[in-house]
């Protein structure tokens, strides 16, 4: 009884207090608050389609305030908080005072008042039924879309254009009018410019999507290549100091660093080969007549026929006598027109004149011996030798200096990108509590991934323009279609960015391609034929040292992954934390977008390591004596997984034969064969299926999320609550905050600004 009396007393007391802060003789709510006038006539359902972006959540907030206000029978206006709507103040005078200082809950803007506007809560079920759909960004609200578009997305486009790539969308030559002298040519020229601009725009969007989709593998592969370059330079520095390497091997290692991002193309031969007569190289240091054998590492029947066809036309020249008394016939140096379009083969031909020792092993082609036979003296340094050395130095220096400077590639875009951050940050200080600016900063922090890719690709030593190498090698090519077109979906034609016989590896494959160059060098020069016992092969100590330096240990891979995750986590952390602590505080639409994207990048990194890191070494290689069967050998090099192609899933089974087929039809023909379903086929299909799913998911999360942020799709009912409540019924979801510039929002914006400053300082 006492409890009931006390409860009744509290209700009476609350009514008296509310009445003291109420207004009397009120006939319409809009007489006190003009914002509430004609709400029903201004309903979004009456002015447009709410499911096509016609919703107006400011109207929803006003409707919630209108529901929270009540006019009593005696004309008194009071705040009647109920289960549908709730205002964080108790009297109408407080609400009127907030309106007088321009802090009405639904239309307030930051004016340096830390109190902010009163907070308006609305029941989610009423909110979803009354205000469905989403609100398209208003052209007058520049903070909602222009900050993200001009401040961050456009600079990211500039950055992605500086990232080297292999192919681009074909632009038809018919778009360009050669003669603009007549007036009749102006209209076709204008239409051609519009068509070319449209194709370039589509191509840029495609490349930006690719950069976003596989940003993690791009960064990891670039760091992998940088580490390999550093190991090769350390190897050269050590061996040159100890005078262990020959001159041609030193040049070969340096050139490997500069051109190791090109496809080896060891088993590709052009269809049309142009035959010419060639000048004879001086006999003192000419190439030996070593017609490649069919079993040679760099040989083929095509090369044999070509060499024979040209060698029979050459006059006899001096034959140097070897230690064993046999003579080796001198031959003209093979021109590049008679060889496969392989930079490795062309490099070997170019450096052959720098050799120290002759070799009568017919299987080595233009790869000379690096060691003498017994007391065999090195070849003398003639005038021709000095000339070849000077030319090799010039070629190496030219290839290095023809690259763009790091500052021009990355420096200017970085300043441009930071300008957008500074502008957004200063704007946010003037409009604390505006969640649109905070969300723009979050997306801008996310776009830092693209500058990180550009920075990594810009610090690599290998050049991106293979035409420079063609000029250095004086490559003779007579290709009818230098663009080497490749078709996607049967009609989208993609040409080489640089029309050349050499092909630049994609950014996410550069580290793996550089390792292939090193492995090719080791496979050719590491084995040494035994002088005393013909047929016995031992290993060159220097080459084995290079193998040890360029074979990454677990600690090396941990370092690479740590740097990669740092470059990925920094943009993600800034974006995620900013979005997480921007009301609606918690894991909601924008923060969930960042989380999904980061998870997909981690999955992409796992796929890259699966395909290109290789199997774990054997226990014997680590100094552990193996006895009997070990369970871990199943996963190591030479185990069942390795033998079935588990550690090379990117190489399809129909790519492993003597004749490679890269078409989709060859894939289906292989899969239709009853014997095609091997473990290697399963690994390949699993790898490319996961890569497709993760890549498309990352594109949707990045560009799709950006587009939804710019358009305003994220301003919908679901995004006003946290993700943990999305599967619950509407009646069980928590209330939604519809007001703007509340005290909590201002405090959250101050914290986000501090987080932004700390993050940008760390990243710079």
TrEMBL record:
Q: Which UniProt keywords apply?
A: Membrane, Signal, Transmembrane, Transmembrane helix
Bias class Polar residues marks the residues at 284-302
The organism's place on the tree of life at top rank: Eukaryota
- In this chain, the stretch annotated as Disordered covers 280-302, 363-386
- Span of the secretion signal? 1-19
Q: Which residues cross the membrane?
A: 144-163, 175-199, 205-224, 404-429, 441-462, 557-582, 594-613, 685-708
What's the protein here called? Uncharacterized protein
Which organism was this protein described from?
Answer: Colletotrichum sojae
């Amino acid at each position: 009884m006492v409890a009931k009396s006390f409860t009744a007393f509290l209700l009476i007391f609350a009514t008296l207090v509310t009445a003291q802060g109420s207004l009397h003789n009120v006939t319409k709510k809009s007489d006190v608050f003009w914002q509430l006038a004609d709400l029903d006539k201004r309903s979004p359902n009456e002015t447009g389609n709410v499911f096509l972006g016609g919703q107006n959540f400011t109207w929803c907030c006003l409707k919630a305030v209108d529901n929270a206000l009540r006019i009593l029978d005696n004309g008194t206006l009071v705040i009647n908080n109920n289960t549908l709507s709730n205002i964080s103040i108790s009297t109408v005078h407080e609400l009127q005072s907030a309106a007088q200082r321009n802090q009405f809950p639904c239309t307030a803007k930051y004016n340096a008042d830390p109190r902010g506007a009163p907070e308006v809560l609305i029941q989610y079920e009423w909110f979803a039924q009354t205000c469905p759909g989403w609100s398209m960004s208003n052209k007058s609200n520049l903070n909602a879309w222009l900050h993200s578009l001009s401040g961050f997305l456009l600079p990211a486009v500039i950055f992605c254009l500086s990232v080297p790539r292999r192919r681009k969308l074909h632009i038809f030559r018919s778009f360009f009018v050669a003669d603009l002298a007549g007036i009749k040519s102006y209209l076709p020229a204008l239409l051609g410019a519009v068509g070319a601009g449209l194709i370039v725009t589509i191509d840029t969007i495609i490349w930006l999507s690719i950069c976003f989709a596989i940003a993690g593998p791009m960064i990891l592969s670039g760091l992998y290549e940088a580490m390999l370059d550093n190991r090769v330079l350390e190897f050269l520095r050590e061996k040159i100091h100890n005078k262990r390497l020959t001159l041609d091997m030193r040049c070969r290692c340096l050139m490997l660093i500069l051109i190791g991002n090109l496809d080896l193309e060891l088993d590709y031969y052009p269809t049309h080969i142009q035959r010419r007569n060639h000048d004879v190289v001086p006999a003192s240091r000419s190439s030996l007549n070593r017609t490649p054998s069919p079993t040679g590492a760099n040989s083929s029947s095509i090369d044999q026929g070509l060499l024979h066809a040209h060698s029979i036309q050459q006059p006899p020249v001096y034959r140097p006598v070897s230690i064993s008394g046999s003579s080796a016939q001198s031959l003209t140096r093979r021109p590049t027109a008679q060889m496969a379009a392989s930079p490795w083969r062309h490099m070997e031909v170019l450096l052959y004149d720098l050799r120290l020792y002759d070799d009568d092993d017919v299987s080595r082609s233009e790869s000379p011996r690096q060691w003498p036979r017994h007391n065999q003296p090195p070849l003398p340094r003639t005038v021709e030798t000095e000339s070849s050395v000077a030319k090799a130095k010039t070629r190496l220096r030219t290839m290095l200096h023809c690259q763009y400077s790091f500052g021009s590639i990355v420096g200017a875009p970085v300043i441009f990108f930071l300008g957008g951050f500074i502008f957004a940050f200063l704007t946010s200080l003037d409009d604390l509590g505006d969640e649109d600016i905070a969300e723009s900063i979050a997306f801008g922090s996310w776009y830092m991934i693209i500058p990180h890719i550009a920075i990594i690709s810009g610090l690599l030593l290998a050049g991106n323009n293979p035409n420079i190498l063609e000029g250095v090698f004086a490559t003779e090519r007579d290709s009818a279609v230098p663009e080497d077109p490749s078709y996607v979906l049967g009609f989208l034609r993609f040409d080489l960015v640089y029309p050349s016989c050499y092909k630049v590896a994609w950014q996410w494959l550069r580290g793996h391609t550089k390792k292939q160059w090193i492995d090719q060098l080791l496979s050719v020069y590491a084995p040494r034929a035994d002088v005393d016992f013909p047929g016995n092969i031992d290993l060159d100590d220097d080459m084995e040292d290079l193998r040890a330096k360029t074979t990454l240990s677990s600690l090396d891979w941990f370092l690479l992954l740590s740097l990669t995750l740092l470059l990925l986590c920094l943009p993600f952390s800034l974006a995620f934390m900013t979005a997480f602590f921007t009301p609606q505080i918690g894991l909601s639409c924008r923060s969930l977008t960042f989380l999904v994207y980061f998870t997909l990048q981690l999955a992409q990194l796992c796929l890259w390591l699966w395909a290109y890191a290789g199997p774990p070494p054997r226990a014997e290689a680590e100094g552990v004596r193996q006895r009997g069967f070990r369970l871990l050998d199943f996963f190591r090099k030479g185990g069942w997984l390795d033998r079935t192609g588990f550690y090379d899933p990117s190489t399809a089974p129909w790519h492993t034969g003597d004749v490679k087929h890269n078409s989709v039809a060859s894939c289906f023909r292989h899969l239709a064969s009853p014997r095609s379903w091997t473990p290697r086929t399963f690994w390949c299909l699993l790898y490319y299926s996961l890569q497709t799913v993760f890549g498309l998911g990352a594109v949707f999360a990045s560009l799709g999320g950006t587009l939804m942020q710019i358009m305003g799709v994220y301003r919908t009912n679901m995004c006003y609550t946290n993700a943990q409540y999305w599967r619950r019924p509407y009646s069980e979801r928590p209330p939604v905050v519809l007001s703007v510039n509340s005290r909590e929002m201002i405090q959250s914006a101050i914290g986000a600004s501090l987080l932004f400053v700390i993050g940008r300082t760390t990243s710079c």
